[in-house]
Each structure stands twice: as structure tokens, then as C-alpha cells.
Write a structure and sequence with these properties.
The chain is of the alpha/beta class. It has helices at residues 10-14, 23-34, 47-57, 87-100, 119-128, 158-169, 192-203, 220-225, 237-242, 254-264; strands spanning 5-8, 38-41, 62-65, 70-73, 79-82, 103-108, 111-114, 133-134, 148-152, 174-176, 182-186, 210-214, 228-231, 245-246. It folds into 2 domains: 5-82 and 190-264, 3-Layer(aba) Sandwich (Rossmann fold); 87-186, Hypothetical Protein, Haloacid Dehalogenase-like Hydrolase, Chain: A, domain 2 (2-Layer Sandwich), CATH 3.30.1240. The chain has 10 helices and 14 strands. The strands form 3 sheets. A 6-stranded mixed sheet has the order 8-7-6-9-11-10, covered by helices on one side.
Amino acid sequence: MSIRLVATDLDDTLLRRDLTISDRTVQTVQAAVKNGVVVTVATGRMFCSALLHARRLGVNVPLITYNGALIRTAESGETLYERTLEEATAAKVLAVSREKGWFVQSYLDDVLHVPVMNDWVARYAARTVVEPVVDGEAFYSNPGRPHKMLLIATPEEIPAMQAEVRRLFGDELHVTSSKPQFLELVHPRASKGAALAYLADYYGIKQEEVMAIGDSNNDMEMIRYAGWGVAVANAVEEVRLAAQAMTTSHEEDGVAVAIERFVLNAGR
């Protein structure tokens, strides 16, 4: 069965350590597109941040963002699918974070909102090329319906925070992580896997014709959904165990290698 839809994570999968995409990867993606393959990104990032990399790849397709909470078409900006958090749930996250002294940021209408500017926010904003809105005290009283909320702490603190969030919120949230210092909170039915299934149906593509490439815990659902799940060499152990195949690391053009091997040269 040939691959007709490819979804790749961004950070630590498509993007190299310096946050760039190699010419080889761009050329390989374009070769797949010319062969009729839909190539998209599936990321925890905001739509506006993902769009910069979609443009570098030269793809004008629906992008899976916010860990599957939003699918929006690259250039037209048409929203095809979204799952926002309930306002009551978002308010509870803010209240708990304030009570426990956790740092949280929120994503409303593709805008990053934070209570204060600190080193965590500065590093995050620089990495994702977004401009945060600093709301001060008003941040805690205007929860809205965000696509995602993000807790940031040291990697040593995150496991206990994750356990507490799951204890307090149960099935009100889907909790995942893309990096050791992040705890990502989205709608309970939002995941990259669910969004990828939606996108495959949108294009009339069978599950076995889908390839997903990833590295981290928030990629697990799409790796498991895809007919052909691929882990980059630098992926966490859980993703490597769940994948059907391995490719090289993000520093070694792992996405390009996977597309060359399993899409462009499959069966040769």
C-alpha cells in the first residue's frame, strides 16, 4: 500500500537543533508533493508559528496545531476542525496554577497570553517566533476557551505536576508533553492522532496510507494511528517502541530519509 499522507512533528523531528529545515528536506518534501502525496505538519505549536515552517516547505495544506486541537489551512486560514477547552476547565487550571505557584501560559485565538514576562516566556517566544501578550493580573480572570494551556517547570518538577493535574482534572483534560519542561493541556478529545484521522478522512485517504513521523510523547497518538509510524533516532523510548520503523535523527534529516525510503523509493 502506497503512502498518500505524511504528517511530521516539528521540534526535534523536522527541525534541526538550530530550528532550521535543510534544503534536502525541502526538496524531498516537494518531490513527494509532486507525486501527489499530502505532506503536513502536526505540532504542539501555535498555528502562526507552524505556518512559518509550512511556508519553508512550500506546502499549502491544512496544518495540525496545538497537539491536534486546531486544524487550519495554511494560506487561506480556513479552520477545518477545532477542540477548545471549556471555559470552566480553563478557569480551574488558572486557579490551581495560581494556588500552587505553577507558571502557566494560555493560547487564545492564536495569541500567546502570559501573566508575566520571565525567562521561560522569553525563551519560548524566541524559539517559536511569537510575540506574547502580558496580561498581568487580568490573565487569571479571563480564561476564555483556549486551544491549549502550557505549564512550564524544571524537568524534575514536571512528573509530580502531571500526577496532580491528572488527579484534579481527570477526563476534563488531555495531558501530554513535547519536552521535559512542558506539560501541555488540551481538550480531552484533542490529540495529533485524532486530528490526523480527521485529515485522512477529509482527503479520502485510508489509515494504512498514512505515515506519521515524531519523537516525543505528544506524538504517540499519531504514531499509533498511522498505518506507518516512524520514529526519529532521537525519539523517546516510548515512541521508538510504538513505531513500525526508525529513521535518522532530526540532525541527520530524518524526515527526508523517511520520505525517501518509505514514500519515494517504496517497493524499489
